[in-house]
Write a structure and sequence with these properties.
single chain, about 200 residues, alpha/beta, Rossmann fold, five-stranded parallel sheet, four-stranded mixed sheet, 8 helices, binds adenosine-5'-triphosphate, transferase, P-loop_NTPase, Guanylate_kinase_CS
Length: about 200
């Protein structure tokens, strides 16, 4: 089955559930999508592997690479700098799979991917209070980084409501419903149903 041609851009506040939905997608559709691995100056969280979730780099190295024109977009978010390199996107395209980018609001505004028109999906938490609760439960943030993420989240939520900012806002209240909406946006609902039915028949 041919892969959809548009690059897929996932954005939304930190803690809104982007990684949660992507993990499910990669589990249900292995070898279909390739995640463009961003660079970041933030420290790895427990379990994160350099080159898998992110390329972990120093600020100087990242800014120098941006200056050399090696990045599709870069932005500073919650006191850390993040960016998508052309090399990361090309690594995925070379594998002949669909590229998925996880980038923040500023990056979305700056993104330029030659002649392609990405599909922009914004993952939204039910409320800022619930977002804070989830980020506290995830236990990856200090008081400072939590505050920075929540401040940024309020702006991102407002931005997502502006006409034309994104193609679809996916509300992540219940994760099953959010995932169903996510698959629908990607045009994959029927395919997953078929795969599930085939697997049930085979067992
Ligand atoms: N629908 C949901 N209900 C309750 N908890 C959720 C839901 N979706 C995600 N979570 C939890 O919220 C936390 C944040 O989710 P996740 O790490 O996927 O967010 P993210 O958008 O990828 O964040 P970041 O941009 O900081 O990497 C995780 O601990 C995750 O398990």
């Amino acid at each position: 089955m041919a892969a959809p041609v548009r690059p897929i851009v996932i954005c939304g506040p930190s803690g809104s559930g982007k990684s949660t939905l992507l993990k499910r997608l990669f589990r249900d559709f292995p070898n279909r999508f390739g995640f463009s691995v961003s660079h970041t100056t933030r420290a790895p969280r427990p379990g994160e592997v350099d080159g898998r979730e992110y390329h972990f780099v120093t600020r100087d190295a990242l800014l120098a690479a941006v200056d050399r024109g090696e990045f599709v977009e870069s932005a500073t978010y919650a006191n850390n700098t993040y960016g998508t390199s052309f090399a990361a996107v090309n690594d995925v395209l070379r594998r002949g799979v669909n590229v998925i980018l996880d980038i923040d609001m500023q990056g979305v505004r700056l993104l330029s991917l030659a002649n392609t028109q990405p599909l922009y999906l914004f993952i939204a938490p039910p409320s800022l209070e619930e977002l804070e609760r989830r980020l506290r439960l995830r236990a990856t943030e200090t008081a400072d980084t939590l505050k920075a993420r929540l401040d940024a989240a309020a702006q991102e939520m407002a931005w997502s409501q502006t006409p034309g900012a994104v193609d679809r806002v996916i509300l992540n209240r219940d994760v099953e419903e959010a995932y169903a909406d996510f698959l629908d946006a990607l045009g994959l609902t029927e395919e997953l149903k078929k795969a599930t039915t085939t697997a049930e028949h085979a067992s």
